[in-house]
């Protein structure tokens, strides 16, 4: 299965979970999440990334959406999101939580700024070396921290081939 077909699978799974038009995308990366979310003209997306290495490219690719105020790219860490409580209807992190030192801190902050759905899709250990360059141990450690927080805070979970889904609607 290709990475594109994997993202189609993920987006199909999470689409019904997204509530409301104002969305936080945690971990801009290559902009794959943005590319899928922006297709819905009702969505207004803020995408955050602490490194912002892809912003210049994405600003060109999505210049129309940025000028229409449907997309904002912001250099920010998931553990310190610069928005007030309940600012977003939905927050999602697509394959980005493994980059955080403490995914639980990122999840807490996503909860703080979100009034509706918090959605996390993350690589499982089986994906190591196939869909990402991370080790099985690294991905297993991330999963353990996410699942511990999820279990203690009312999240639902679902395993898939090479990835898993964690979500909660407030």
If you had to describe this structure to a student in words, what would you say it looks like?
With about 170 residues, the chain is of the alpha/beta class. The protein has one domain (about 5-170): Vaccinia Virus protein VP39 (Rossmann fold), CATH 3.40.50.150. Helices cover about 35% and strands about 25% of the residues. It contains 6 helices and 7 strands, in the order αβαβααββαβαββ. It has helices at about 5-15, 30-35, 55-60, 65, 105-115, 135-150, and strands spanning about 20-25, 45-50, 70-75, 90-95, 115-125, 155-160, 165-170. It has a 7-stranded mixed β-sheet with strand order 3-2-1-4-5-7-6. The longest helix has 17 residues, at about 135-150. It is globular, with a radius of gyration of 15 Å.
Output the keywords.
alpha/beta; Rossmann fold; seven-stranded mixed beta sheet; 6 helices
Per CATH, what is the topology?
A: Rossmann fold
So what's the oligomer here? single chain
Indicate the percent of residues in helices.
25-40%
What are the segments in which pLDDT stays under 50 over at least 5 consecutive residues?
A: none
What is the CATH domain class? Answer: Alpha Beta
CATH architecture type:
3-Layer(aba) Sandwich
Q: How would a textbook summarize the main sheet? A: 7 strands, mixed
Count structural domains: 1
Q: N-to-C terminal Cα separation, in Å?
A: 34 Å
Largest sheet strand order: 3-2-1-4-5-7-6
Based on CA atoms alone, the radius of gyration comes out at 15 Å
Number of helices: 6
Structural class: alpha/beta
The CATH superfamily title = Vaccinia Virus protein VP39
